[in-house]
Design goal:
312 residues; binds manganese (II) ion; binds pseudouridine-5'-monophosphate; Indigoidine synthase fold; eleven-stranded mixed sheet; 11 strands; globular; alpha/beta
Length: 312
């Protein structure tokens, strides 16, 4: 077991967890590598507010000086946001090294899920999850986020799957690993900047209570692993599909020409797309994360109400 300073849960978050109150985990790679300073820090604060407005306690997760931090303080978010890409982007494989070396690390969806589960947090909000990259049949670039979803018991609320990824293959991978993909108030999978990827979701859910029931039953039965809750970006903030897909195609071509690979790909693509849309993709990204945080807060509230019919 890790000692209290290694898994460092802030007083507020610990009190909420001890009292069985709703808590929502938030990741930090989106702050350090996903958005530029100072928008990243403003967004992180707004996302925490959205969780609070829904009646839950936010817990932004990162590694500071080798300690796993659950519930960053405002000055810690500021610090991470300013350091940006100088902070190490940490997925599952990176955790023990960054901790042993007492470094700072921003946690991806995979690493945030691991730490959230260790702390006893079951609901997590983010923008987009990693997936099977386009061209993965050559590059083998498949995000460790998918493997984490296969095995760690956390519901991940996101805006669907970005079309920088191979959406169809990402869905196939999730299906193979038994990870359900539910559309929140939609029958089709959202594609991050746009509301509809053209792919169907496995299940449509219309309320937070329905999601909480599924979480309880799945985990009470011992069916390990995550659940993807895909929430479409609010209509008024969605980007034009043809335009954004054109920009994405160009960004991917540039990435290939520059031979950018591995963990650099997602940050590179996000930054390029923001540049090429004169910041409109960034605005859309900010709005969809806030919206996901609100939905995650509502799910956490329902989940905290109690057990599934199976365990009564
Ligand atoms: N998608 C976004 N913004 C992000 C990320 C994904 O729209 O910031 C981050 C998340 O932290 C996710 C990670 O877990 O990128 C995936 O990286 P990779 O593709 O290297 O696994
Ligand atoms: Mn990758």
């Amino acid at each position: 077991m890790l000692d209290k300073s290694t898994l460092d849960i802030t007083t507020k978050v610990a009190a909420a967890l001890d009292a069985g109150k709703p808590v929502v985990a938030l990741e930090s790679t989106i702050i350090s590598h996903g958005m530029p300073y100072p928008k990243n820090v403003e967004t992180a604060a707004a996302v925490e507010d959205a969780v609070r407005d829904a009646g839950a306690t936010p817990a932004t997760i990162a590694i500071l000086g080798g300690h796993l931090k659950v519930g960053l303080l405002a000055d810690e978010i500021q610090y991470l946001g300013k350091k940006g890409a100088q902070v190490i982007k940490c997925s599952r494989r990176d955790l023990p090294f960054v901790m042993a070396r007492k470094q700072d690390g921003a946690t991806t969806v995979a690493a945030t899920m691991i730490i959230a589960a260790m702390a006893g947090i079951r609901v997590f909000a983010t923008g987009g999850i990693g997936g099977v990259h386009r061209g993965a049949e050559e590059t083998m670039d498949i995000s460790a986020d998918l493997e984490e979803l296969a095995s760690t018991d956390v519901a991940v609320v996101c805006a669907g799957i970005k079309s920088v990824l191979d959406i169809g293959r990402t869905l196939e991978y999730l299906e193979t690993h038994g990870v359900p993909v539910a559309g929140f108030q939609t029958d089709t999978l959202p594609a991050f900047y746009t509301r509809d990827s053209g792919f169907a979701v496995d299940y449509r859910v219309d309320t937070a209570a329905e999601v909480a029931a599924v979480m309880n039953i799945k985990w009470d039965m011992g069916l390990r692993g995550g659940i993807v809750i895909a929430v479409p970006i609010p209509e008024e903030h969605a980007l034009d599909e043809d335009e954004i897909n054109g920009v994405i195609d160009e960004a991917i071509a540039e990435m290939q020409a520059r031979k950018i690979t591995g963990k650099e790909t997602t940050p590179f693509l996000l930054a390029r797309i923001a540049e090429r849309t004169a910041g409109r993709s960034l605005e859309a990204n900010i709005e969809l994360v806030k919206n996901n945080a609100r939905v995650a807060g509502e799910i956490a509230v329902e989940f905290s109400r109690g057990r599934s019919p199976l365990s009564r």
